[in-house]
Amino acid sequence: DSGVTQTPKHLITATGQRVTLRCSPRSGDLSVYWYQQSLDQGLQFLIQYYNGEERAKGNILERFSAQQFPDLHSELNLSSLELGDSALYFCASSVGTSGNFYDEQYFGPGTRLTVT
Amino acid sequence: AQSVTQLDSQVPVFEEAPVELRCNYSSSVSVYLFWYVQYPNQGLQLLLKYLSGSTLVKGINGFEAEFNKSQTSFHLRKPSVHISDTAEYFCAVSARGRGAQKLVFGQGTRLTINP
Lengths: 116, 115
Description:
With 116 residues, chain A is mostly beta strands. Chain A is built from no helices and eleven strands. In chain A, a hairpin with a 2-residue loop joins strand 5 and strand 6.
């Protein structure tokens, strides 16, 4: 158990709908990352937050957005869903140190999204 | 920017045989290197990591990997595999330093162990 929790575990929804995925980082971790794992794109970094602020952006679609709240949990919002958005969405967290230090990421179990 | 190439999408081996999963990376800056394992219907588990120092890194479940800077490779090896090693294996890199950094993953190698 990494200490990172994600809810829900599974989500089935229809095209055009909007969903919210939730992630609670390990206690004390300030950084949260979102990754998408799909059959055609593989494992891709979407976005990173550090202490409530967006820090880095990857291949995240404009229909997707994320935020990190004052209690440090994060939500990934996916809207106008398409069949191709079906994927496993992972959240990871890290302490979020700065400077020349290694900052290990701990992964949650993922949320499997199926768009029908 | 960084990129990772896993040279084999699938590797079938017999139980108790040795295995090598190949990984090459490209980066304009120094990197940390990782191997993750994903068992069926599960999340990602860190097998091992190279941060600095000895180029031979030992991880969990009897796996090891060797960092080769000149060949920009980080191949994963196990001398004798078990049925329970059947899983998907991902090589990943992140830029060294400057605090928290995103992971860039390869496409994965599906390891299948046959009895």
